[in-house]
Amino acid sequence: ILSISLLAACGANSESENAGNAESGGSAEAVSLRLAHNQPEDHPVHTSLMELSKLTEENSDGNAKIEVFPNGQLGQERDVIELVKSGTLDMAKVSASALEAFDSNYAIFSLPYVFQSKEHYHHVMDNSEAVQEIFQGTKDDGYVAIGWYDAGQRSIYTVDKKVETPADMKGLKIRVQESPTSIAMIEAMGGSPTPMSYGEVYTSLQQGVIDGAENNEGALANGHGEVAKAYTYTEHQYVPDVVIVSTAAWDKLSEDQQKAIQDAANASTESHKDVWTTAIDGYIKELEGMGVNFYTIDKKAFIDAATPLHEKYTAENETNKKYFDDFQSHLK
Ligand code: GCU
Predict the structure, then answer these.
(1) Helical H runs in the chain?
(2) What is the Cα–Cα distance from 131 to 269, expressed in whole angstroms?
(3) How confident is the model at residue 9 (pLDDT cuts 50, 70, 90)?
(4) How many domains does the chain have?
(5) Domain limits at 210?
(6) Is the pLDDT reported for residue 3 higher than 90?
(7) Nearest residue (CA) to ligand 1, atom 10
(8) CB within 6 Å of ligand 1 — which residues?
(9) Average pLDDT of 9-20?
(10) Candidates 198, 205, 236, 272: which one to mutate for ligand 1, based on the most atoms within 8 Å of Cβ?
(11) What's the gap in Å between 65 CA and the centre of ligand 1?
(12) What is the ipTM of this complex?
């Protein structure tokens, strides 16, 4: 439940009474947009969102600003997507998996092993027409996506059980994002999926409500590693983080302001790649020091268990098939 002061922090703040709806570039009054996300301030994605904010201000000569609200203080991912859709909040950074509950075209990002490597993933995200179509396709639904951040690979981790094969997943309650494809994925991989918001995972691990979860190494550095000590590189997903903007806020900006923000988003996507890698390397060292074990396995059994979902996905409709083929065409 959002407090009144937080809600008050949500709406776009025109710095002039006459702001907004400028027809031509350059004539709009300065505008300040609010962006929410659920990571702490020492997280690499927060670093890159601050870069987005800084570059937006620079590119627009102070005519557009982005104020970043971290730590889930404006809500969990589902909540902030609702707020952005309704135009109550201007911007958010959420996982592409969370968007699947709002637009089924986002399902492809959660399809296990749709990306075969980090290189394949980056190539698709940077070059695919399908990605741009999905990003722009929700405009009439209240929001568009203007950029993405590398959120690494996602793998299985448990409190103490070392998972090496799908058989080891039997009976394990594994938290997943609130994404139908991620739920189906854990079932296919042999476990019992338990969807819940990110903010609930730490306590659920601690209280034994779940046996484990699946995420990048950063989630363990965000506290989960205090409880979960066995991390297995199943590398079943590479789910991008996505920056969404409410259509209401975007349409009020001048073309110059839109360009300033879009250029800043593109530049911060690029610089984030190194920011991410450096942060993850540091996290792994830190987590090993806390007694977290990282296991590398032969992933074949997991790939075999999960890939029947590809056929199910492409058989569903023509659009799915088109997106899937587009993603595969970026394999070098
Ligand atoms: C990643 C992602 C977050 C998301 C989280 C989750 O950490 O970057 O945006 O909330 O996964 O599993 O819910």
Answers:
(1) 4-8, 44-59, 77-85, 96-99, 118-127, 129-136, 180-188, 201-206, 217-221, 247-252, 255-289, 300-306, 308-316, 318-328
(2) 14
(3) low
(4) 2
(5) 154-238+290-328
(6) no
(7) 198
(8) 38, 77, 94-95, 151, 177, 198, 215-216, 219, 241
(9) 48
(10) 198
(11) 25
(12) 0.99
- 304 with 170, same domain: the answer is yes
What is the 42 CA–ligand 1 centroid distance (Å)? 15
- Looking at the fold, whether 129 and 231 belong to one and the same domain comes out as no
**Separation in Å, CA 290 to CA 163, 220, 254, 294:** 19, 10, 50, 12
Mean per-residue pLDDT, 268-278: 98
Same domain, 263 and 294: no
Where residue 230 sits, what CATH number does that domain have?
3.40.190.170
Q: Using DSSP, state whether 217 is helix, strand or coil.
A: helix
Q: Is residue 23 part of a domain?
A: no
Q: What is the pLDDT of residue 252?
A: 97
Verify that 164 and 35 share a domain, yes or no: no
62 C-alpha to center of ligand 1: Å?
31
pLDDT digits (tens, 9 = 90+) for 24-70: 444 568 999 999 999 999 999 999 999 999 999 999 999 999 999 99
Whether 145 and 164 map to the same domain: the answer is no
Residue 266 lies in a domain: yes
Nearest-CA neighbor of 225 among 295, 296, 290? 290
Residues 54 and 116 in one domain: yes
**pLDDT tens-place string over residues 123-162:** 999 999 999 999 999 999 999 999 999 999 999 999 999 9
